[in-house]
Design goal:
- The protein is an alpha/beta fold.
- The chain has a nine-stranded mixed beta sheet with strand order 8-7-6-5-4-3-2-1-9.
- It is 50% helix and 12% strand.
- A hairpin with a 5-residue loop joins strand 1 and strand 2 (17-23).
Length: 412
């Protein structure tokens, strides 16, 4: 499987590249081909972020310059931006957002945390006036607006402060005119078309992974045995050493051996790492997003169970339950067949087959529902965990998922 992304440079008045816009791409496509609906736009942005940070490397894509990334309304509201470093990104507010008091407050709060914003495809529509005090760049599409509108927008915003960016600049005449009108940044075919890049996902040694998962699921799992399995696979060795050294709480420590890395991680963290490698390596979907969603479900389920006094000891099963809840889509294989091929705890197996105990079934249904809208916890947890704590756990799970994906890079 290959991962794709495109970039297009943004230039200043001297013709120097000062940033890149990162764009969603699929195989054999020169444009994004995204339908005008929230789900597809959300997935496209998540895929761009995932590919930029975990497949290609953001610095490799932008040469250390700022990355402009489109953010649909929902991702602005759910604080996805907090997963990114402020100095690395310019968050583009899409032209189809509904400008509400809630959206403005979210953008204001993110700006106070140091994030920068660009307003995309601005036409002077007064509905976007509440956002203007909080944006750093206003992008004007020179193919969708005429000369009079372009000049009017430039005059309107001259005293407000945001930098004007002329996009879809396709020839020198338009470029020179935009400069005279007061536009200071430029983007378009006159300078460079979006360049699509692809990277091959390496093949995973299924036998090694199955052996590792089987060992980790034993009640008396042995870290030395796990290390020995990993040592037989060059890809797993590379990924484990890289992951352990990159994890934020291991920085400053020197990790040079498989045994050292395995000891640092421990059984639970090693299981998470293995399942993430497994999900991404066997992924039959068009992007990492289904794997990310599965991993997030697992981390969230484990966090909820760990917070409960009654289910702390089974928290590892919560992770497996969430992770495998999307494995049919990831591996394009029926659950009945998957269960036969991999070692899982009986309670998890039964739940995934629709025969599970009531708690596991209700927990999984809650997690699926919570992805769409906050809802009530299963009764067994509701009396122990207040909803404010659930919100915190979910945000922490999102951040931990992002951190884990950043720690596993795919090789060429």
């Amino acid at each position: 499987m290959k991962s794709y992304i495109a970039r297009q440079p943004i230039l200043d008045q001297t013709g120097s590249v000062c940033a890149y816009e990162l764009l969603y791409r699929q195989e054999n496509a020169t444009t994004a081909n995204i339908q005008e609906n929230e789900n597809e736009q959300d997935q496209a942005t998540r895929t761009v972020i995932s590919n930029a940070f975990t497949v290609f490397g953001l610095k490799n894509l932008t040469n250390g310059k700022r990355a402009y990334i489109n953010f649909p309304e929902q991702l602005l509201l759910d604080n996805t931006a907090l997963l990114l470093k402020q100095e690395q990104v310019m968050i583009e507010i899409l032209e189809n957002v509904s400008v509400s008091g809630g959206l403005v407050e979210h953008i204001k709060a993110l700006r106070e945390k140091g994030y920068s914003f660009a307003l995309d495809d601005y036409t002077g529509n007064p509905a976007f006036a509440p956002l203007l005090p909080y944006v750093d760049v206003v992008k004007v599409d020179f193919r969708l607006t005429n000369l009079v509108e372009q000049k009017r927008i430039a005059d309107q915003l001259a005293k407000r402060g945001p930098i004007l960016l002329a996009e879809k600049v396709e020839d020198e005449t338009v470029f020179l005119r935009a400069q005279k009108q007061g536009y200071r940044l430029f983007q378009g075919y006159f300078f460079e078309k979006p360049m699509t890049m692809a990277r091959e996902t390496p093949k995973i040694n299924e036998i090694s992974l199955m052996q590792l998962i089987k060992e980790l699921n034993k009640t008396d799992a042995n870290l030395n045995t796990c290390a020995a399995i990993i040592r037989t696979d060059a890809y797993l060795t590379f990924q484990l050493l890289k992951s352990a050294s990159k994890m934020k709480y291991y920085r400053g420590n020197s990790i040079h051996t498989i045994e050292h890395a395995v000891a640092f991680l421990g059984i639970n963290e090693l299981m998470r790492w293995t399942m993430l490698i497994f999900g991404r390596g066997m992924n039959h979907t068009r992007s990492d997003e289904t794997v990310r969603a599965a991993y997030l479900r697992g981390v969230f389920a484990e966090s909820l169970m760990d917070t409960s006094k009654n289910y702390q000891e089974q928290k590892g099963e919560g992770f497996l339950l969430g992770m495998f809840s999307l494995m049919e889509q990831i591996m394009d294989t029926k659950m009945e067949k998957l269960i036969l091929e991999i070692s899982l705890p009986d309670e998890v197996k039964n739940c995934l087959l629709g025969k599970g105990n009531k708690f596991y079934t209700e927990l999984l249904e809650f997690i699926k529902a919570y992805e769409r809208i906050p809802c009530q916890l299963p009764k067994e947890l509701a009396h122990e965990i207040p909803m404010e704590r659930v919100t915190d756990l979910y945000i922490q799970s999102v951040m931990e998922t992002d951190q884990s994906f950043n720690c596993i890079e795919l090789k060429n």
